[in-house]
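Quick one, C-alpha cells below. Sequence please?
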C-alpha cells in the first residue's frame, strides 16, 4: 500500500476530470455490472507513465464532444481488492497498470494497456481514446 498523502493528488486528477473512485469489491461489481450505456474504467497507478501520459491523456480526451456516460477508476497498489475485482472484467487482457478500458452495454470494446502508454505522450493517448469515443459513444 502506498501512503494516502502520496496518492491523493494522483487520485484527485481523475476525480477532478469527473471520475468516480471505486474502492472496494462491492462498488466495482455494482458499477461494472451495469450493462447500460458507455463506461470508461481507468486502472490508475503511481508510475511515471500514468502521471505523464495516461491521466493527462484521459483528461484531454474527455474534452471531446463524444465521451462515455460513466467514468470510474480503481487505484492499483492502493485499493487492491477493488483493482483485482475490476481486472476480472478486463479479461482476456493481463493485469496492466495503468490501463484504460471502454465498455459499451457491458462489453469491453476498447483497451489501452500499459505498453501502449509507456513511451507515448499524452496527446497520443488522448487521440487513441477520442477515436474509441467517436466509434462507441
Amino acid at each position: 500500500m502506498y501512503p494516502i498523502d502520496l496518492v491523493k493528488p494522483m487520485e484527485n486528477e481523475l476525480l477532478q476530470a469527473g471520475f468516480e473512485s471505486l474502492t472496494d469489491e462491492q462498488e466495482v461489481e455494482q458499477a461494472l455490472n451495469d450493462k447500460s450505456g458507455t463506461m470508461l474504467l481507468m486502472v490508475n497507478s503511481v508510475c511515471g507513465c500514468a502521471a505523464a501520459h495516461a491521466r493527462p491523456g484521459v483528461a484531454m480526451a474527455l474534452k471531446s464532444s463524444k465521451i462515455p456516460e460513466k467514468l470510474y477508476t480503481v487505484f492499483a497498489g492502493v485499493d487492491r481488492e477493488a483493482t483485482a475485482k475490476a481486472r476480472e472484467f478486463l479479461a482476456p487482457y493481463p493485469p496492466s497498470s495503468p490501463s484504460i478500458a471502454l465498455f459499451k452495454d457491458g462489453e469491453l470494446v476498447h483497451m489501452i494497456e500499459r505498453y501502449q502508454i509507456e513511451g507515448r505522450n499524452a496527446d497520443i493517448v488522448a487521440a487513441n481514446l477520442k477515436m474509441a469515443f467517436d466509434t462507441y459513444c
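The helical segments are 4-16, 25-32, 48-61, 80-88, 122-136. The chain has a mean pLDDT of 95.
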